Amino acid sequence: MQKEKLYGKTINELIAVTRRVGLPGFAAKQITDWLYKKEIQSIQEMTNLSKKMRDLLSDDYEIGLSSPVSVAESSDGTKKYLYKVLNNKYIETAYIPDNDHATLCLSVQVGCKMGCSFCMTGKQGFQGNLSSNEILNQFRSLPEFKNISNIVYMGMGEPLDNLSEVLKSLEILTNDWGYGWSPTRVTVSTVGLINGIKEFLEKSNCHFAVSLNSPFDEERKKLMPVQITNSVNEVLEIIRNFSFNNQRRVSFEYILFKGMNDSPRHINELARILNGIKCRINIISFHPFSGSSFQSPDMTTTINFKEALNAKGILTTIRASRGLDIQAACGLLSTLEQNKA
Ligand code: SF4
């Protein structure tokens, strides 16, 4: 029988485990220390639990960490790790070092239901949700684990479509009994699922990003079918009515596509719909993949787009393109690996 994994459980879940196994309640806090503050690989290393307690726990549970199966390394230092999950499926995790800090981009699902037309992961279709164990294992089992300064939930899958496991992983990252990270080191990005946004905003203090890509309804529907049932106007309404604390950041991601969403008309409409929202726009380069007809505009167009938005009072930045020589498009590596398997 497969043992249940302890890593990825919240303190309340661990209290339930201690009850089930017949351990004293205080053991749950000791177990969180071992799981999230020390780097143990087995229950037998939990040396402040008695041998009898460790044996009881080991009967049904294991720590549940697993190393990546492969890595592709870019000449710019970006690394893409592949982890095996859910019986022969693969997910990608991108490690992006930048001077004195490093960002980790986590996946939350195998494939994705959202079907964004510019995304390779969307083309895989949906193959399953990751558990909080599998989400956080991408962080904990990374060889560069200790170097990571920021985490973004922007890899494969839609975080708000796997909200309960994503919230658990955020709870572990940001609570004192877990990793104790400031929520400002973590950004969760969504296409804008109305049903999940309020719950996410209320239950977490992490930064919030919405993948926007066009301010126009019909255009956005073509890029992101989610717009048909979850219009960006409703998303903006929720954001307008939510009271964000000063530290919490709202941003909008905007992938620039040549000749599609890079005109002055788009700039004016972006300024109109975002009016009154304290936010920033991150312009992201499109990472091409075979079979896709999208193209990126040249750098001059990109810089002009950014400056025009800044001139309209919307803080706008261009996110540097990284890892282009290692299949940077999200979902490419895992698709190749799955095809091999
Ligand atoms: S861009 Fe994100 S939400 Fe859209 S299909 Fe790809 S993984 Fe899913």
Looking at this protein, list some descriptive labels.
341 residues; alpha/beta; 10-stranded mixed sheet; two-stranded parallel ribbon; globular; binds iron/sulfur cluster
Bound molecules: iron/sulfur cluster
End-to-end distance:
25 Å
Question: pLDDT under 50 segments (min length 5)?
Answer: none
How many helices? The count is 12
Helical fraction equals: 25-40%
Q: What is the strand arrangement across the widest sheet?
A: 3-4-5-6-9-10-11-12-13-14
Mean pLDDT equals 93
* Global morphology: globular
How many strands in all?
14
Give your account of this protein's structure.
The chain has 341 residues and is of the alpha/beta class. Strands 3-4-5-6-9-10-11-12-13-14 form a 10-stranded mixed sheet, with helices on both faces. A two-stranded parallel ribbon has the order 1-2. Helix 1 packs across helix 2 and helix 5 crosses helix 6. The protein is globular, with a radius of gyration of 21 Å. The site of iron/sulfur cluster has 11 residues, from helix 4.
Topology, element by element:
Blueprint: E1 4-5, H1 11-21, H2 27-36, H3 51-60, E2 61-62, E3 70-73, E4 79-85, E5 89-98, E6 101-105, E7 109-111, H4 120-124, E8 126-129, H5 132-140, E9 150-153, H6 163-174, E10 186-190, H7 194-203, E11 207-211, H8 217-223, H9 232-241, E12 250-256, H10 264-273, E13 280-285, H11 299-311, E14 315-319, H12 332-340
Parallel strand pairs: 1-2, 6-9, 9-10, 10-11, 11-12, 12-13, 13-14
Antiparallel strand pairs: 3-4, 4-5, 5-6, 7-8
Bound molecules: iron/sulfur cluster (SF4).
